[in-house]
Structures are given as structure tokens and as C-alpha cells.
UniProtKB/TrEMBL annotation:
SUPFAM superfamilies in UniProt: Dimeric alpha+beta barrel (SSF54909)
NIPSNAP domain residues: 107-178
PANTHER family xrefs: NIPSNAP-RELATED, PROTEIN NIPSNAP
Designated name of the protein: NIPSNAP protein
Family note: Belongs to the NipSnap family.
A Pfam family hit: NIPSNAP
């Protein structure tokens, strides 16, 4: 499965306008891909909206990217002084495609910037660790970038931030996390918390 992660950043008071415009764009008949989720930033750069879409093949994703680049009003935000960032990803091959549903009140987005040659061992490490780790809490997706700096981005849903801290601490203590051989392959990481919008397919 292939994914597009779009981040729209504007003034925090314009968030309702940005969300409504983006939803209208996503629901337009000419828009390709499956809308999977939308979130607003809770920390980091405030006033941001993040959108996840799924595509069955890279060609469809590429065509939709080209359409957005040439569109006069991509995601409906051309008149809202928003900035736009569009990233292309492929899902880790052993993970199932993302399916919408209710999984948590908060979503954590973690991005790891990889060392050269670090992708293959990272995927192997995650494949070995996830059967045990997934018993503790669900993973929405892990995916690797098809453009820009080599990196992976994974998304975790949580009912509360206290739950997140407790489960991560117990996983570390039990020695099942982080994936053995994984941390050696990245040199920088970020973690941000996002809240699903009212109409987000992933909640």
C-alpha cells in the first residue's frame, strides 16, 4: 500500500476554515486516493492539519500529486495563507493496509531519519518485533519515504497520553521494544501528538 501525508499549516484561528476546505477537496469526485485520516497538531507547530491518504499503486499516487501541484487551489487552501507539504510513502511490506475506525483520542506521529543503507535492516527489525509489540497496543501504520531524505514515519493511536507512557515504559522494561537492531539505523527522531478532526475516518 502507498500513502500520501499532507501537512497544511496556517494561523491557528483559521483551522476550522482550513479543515472545511481540505475536506471539500478530498471529497471531490476528481480527487483520487482513499482518505484515511485528518488530525490537528497538539504540540510542535500549532495551527497545522495533517491528512493521510492511501493509494493502491505508486502510479495513482504520482498522478494525484501532479494534479495537486497543478491545481489552482490544492486542498482548498490557496486563499488561507497556508503552507503545504506533501510526502509520499510506501507501507512496510509485512503490515496490512490502513483501515479507518475508532482507535484513540490521540495519535502519535514519529519520524526517524535513517542512515544510508538503514531501511532494509529497519524493516527486518520491525517485522521481528511487531508480533509481540502489537499485543500491547495497535499500530496504525509504519511507512518509508519515497521522496526526500531517507526516513520512516509511524503512527500510533492512544486513548490517553498516560496510556502511551505506561505501555511504552512496560514494553521497554520487558525488552520487546525498541526493535532489536532498529535504533542503530537512524540518527534523528521526532514525535508529535495530533488529535483527529470531527470527520476523520481514523479516530
Amino acid at each position: 500500500m502507498f500513502y500520501e501525508l499532507v501537512t497544511l499549516s496556517s494561523h491557528i484561528l483559521k483551522l476550522p476554515e482550513v479543515i472545511a476546505s481540505a475536506e471539500a477537496y478530498l471529497n471531490h469526485p476528481e480527487t483520487a486516493g482513499r482518505w484515511l485520516g485528518a488530525w490537528t497538531s497538539e504540540n510542535g507547530r500549532l495551527g497545522s492539519v495533517r491528512i493521510l491518504r492511501g493509494f493502491v499503486d505508486p502510479g495513482t499516487l504520482s498522478q494525484e500529486r501532479a494534479r495537486a501541484l497543478h491545481h489552482a487551489n490544492p486542498f482548498g487552501v490557496a486563499d488561507s495563507t497556508s503552507t503545504i507539504e506533501m510526502e509520499s510513502y510506501a507501507g512496510f511490506p509485512f503490515l496490512p493496509p490502513v483501515e479507518p475506525g475508532s482507535f484513540g483520542r490521540y495519535y502519535e506521529f514519529r519520524t526517524y531519519w535513517l542512515r544510508p543503507g538503514g531501511l532494509a535492516p529497519t524493516i527486518e527489525a520491525w517485522e521481528a518485533a511487531m508480533p509481540e509489540r502489537s499485543k500491547r497496543s495497535p499500530l496504525t501504520v509504519n511507512m518509508y519515504a519515497l521522496d526526500g531524505v531517507p526516513r520512516i514515519t509511524h503512527i500510533w493511536p492512544w486513548e490517553s497520553l498516560d496510556e502511551r507512557i505506561a505501555i511504552r515504559a512496560k514494553s521497554y522494561a520487558d525488552g520487546i521494544w525498541p526493535p532489536k537492531g532498529g535504533p542503530e539505523n537512524f540518527y534523528e527522531a521526532t514525535s508529535t501528538i495530533w488529535i483527529p478532526t470531527i470527520n476523520s475516518p481514523l479516530r
